[in-house]
Amino acid sequence: MEYAQALAHKFALNLRKQVKTLSTGYSSIMKLILAMASNAPVIIFDEPVLGLDANHRDLFYHELMARYNEHPQTIIISTHLIDEIADVLEEAIIIKDGRLVLHQPVEQLLQSAYTVSGADAKVDQFIKNRKVIHQETLGRLKSAAVYEQLNSQIRRDAEALGLDISGAPLQKLFIYLTN
What we know:
2 domains, about 180 residues, Rossmann fold, Alpha-Beta Plaits, two-stranded parallel ribbon, alpha+beta, single chain, about 25% strand
């Protein structure tokens, strides 16, 4: 109870208000507090930051990590704001149309793909015989996401062609792997 009250204070949740009078954001905050204070071995959040402003979302992620560090438990988060919670995640599970597309540690997933960009002909030359999961062309510039682990040889090959190479953001990977 003390933990729930402390969270209510941090989130500026008025405990005297009736639940039905709470805004969408504060209704979400109330549900987050109830879930986090439950001490359940497994907590499932479905779009937990719905209606929350950026400051409250940041506070939620901070409090969630602090609570997890003090009391480790399984936390499942279903969200469309993937980049926003990327630093909080340990495992990524991608489900599309009720089917499991991918399940692996986030760090491993981030290392399993990269983006290469530059002159379209050079990008085409580079991506030949590679597993391309996304391509975009703008004029004579092209960008491609490749699903393979980036290593120093791949980096040298890209640089030899004058291409830029970088890791693919987690949210983009989710999009590319489900389209």
